[in-house]
Amino acid sequence: MLIDSYERVVDYLRVSVTERCNFRCQYCMPEKPFSWVPKENLLSFEELFLFMKIAIDEGVKKIRITGGEPLLREGLDKFIKMIYDYEPSIDLAMTTNAYLLKGAAQKLKDAGLKRINVSIDTLDPITAHRIAAKDVLKNVLEGVEEARKVGLIVKVNMVPMNNMNANEIVDVLEYCKERNMSIRFIEYMENQFASKDISGLKSDELLERLREHYEFTDDGFDGSSPSHYYTMKDGYRFGIIEPYADDFCKKCNRIRLTAEGNLIPCLYFDEALSIGKAIKAGDINAAAEVLREVVRTKPEKNRWGGEDGESSSRAFYETGG
């Protein structure tokens, strides 16, 4: 079992298999980076799997595949199957923009994937093009329907932004509600790679807008989830993630691995240790020791809140933010 210095059990590993993405979302990566990490610098699926086995043996119970856009990496279903075959009880999930999901959903389900998170920031094709710098909405919605059809559990994330999609909060919620998909509204996280024109909605303003249409109760936090949950009179539940607060840090159970092998204790911390050298050498003991050290030094909370709050210099597309 992996336990950090604040007595939190760390059993959730987010694994970025690529930093590449086929969207250029305003709040993440509006411009193409000067250069992508060369493919030869990335850990192979076999090398990533070696670390997955170590993590599972050390106590990890949930693995989420992220990117960039994970479906851009060829053979992803085979990597997922490696993990599933090693430990069928593992909670295997993936975060995707769903653009390529329609043609991949069945293979992913057959490989052992259980759940997906999809960003749907708008239901308007023009707004979607504006956010992602690409005509994406048709593919995304078709991918979501195919995922539901093959039996994958689908959760939706939305980043509400002023002068862009804030007027669609209710529409996107109703879209999810009609399909029995949960939705989480995520406050915009400031980072140096995002467009400078973005102004995100804070949770208080978001709740005020939702109260104009619904009655709901405050459920607080649920386990180690970063979401603050609310339940409507009809039983439908939605969540809000407030990165500038640190309430959810108290029960944080996750660490992150980049495609190059950097193990990160917190999304908003630049500190990391690499398991790359040990994994490429097949040194299981050394890689396990790095894992334990990252867990041991996991910070108490993020750096967003308070007077000393920072704007992240880490590219979220590298870590599945």
TrEMBL record:
Query: What's an example of a GO molecular-function annotation for this chain?
Result: metal ion binding
| Record keywords | 4Fe-4S, GTP-binding, Iron, Iron-sulfur, Lyase, Metal-binding, Molybdenum cofactor biosynthesis, Nucleotide-binding, S-adenosyl-L-methionine
**What NCBIfam families does this protein map onto?**
moaA (TIGR02666)
Sites where the protein binds [4Fe-4S] cluster 2: 249, 252, 266
Q: Which positions does UniProt annotate for S-adenosyl-L-methionine binding?
A: 27, 68, 119, 189
Pathway membership: Cofactor biosynthesis; molybdopterin biosynthesis
Q: Which family does it belong to?
A: Belongs to the radical SAM superfamily. MoaA family.
Q: Where is this region: Disordered?
A: 301-321
UniProt cross-references to Pfam families, sorted A to Z: Mob_synth_C, Radical_SAM
Q: Quaternary form?
A: Monomer and homodimer.
Domain (Radical SAM core) ranges = 5-222
Instruction: Cite a single GO BP annotation.
Output: Mo-molybdopterin cofactor biosynthetic process
For this protein, the Enzyme Commission number is 4.1.99.22
| Name of the featured protein | GTP 3',8-cyclase
Q: Cofactor comment in the record?
A: Binds 2 [4Fe-4S] clusters. Binds 1 [4Fe-4S] cluster coordinated with 3 cysteines and an exchangeable S-adenosyl-L-methionine and 1 [4Fe-4S] cluster coordinated with 3 cysteines and the GTP-derived substrate.
What function does this protein fulfil? Catalyzes the cyclization of GTP to (8S)-3',8-cyclo-7,8-dihydroguanosine 5'-triphosphate.
Binding of GTP: at which residues?
14, 64, 95, 155, 254-256
List residues binding [4Fe-4S] cluster 1: 21, 25, 28
Could you tell me what reaction this enzyme catalyses? GTP + AH2 + S-adenosyl-L-methionine = (8S)-3',8-cyclo-7,8-dihydroguanosine 5'-triphosphate + 5'-deoxyadenosine + L-methionine + A + H(+)
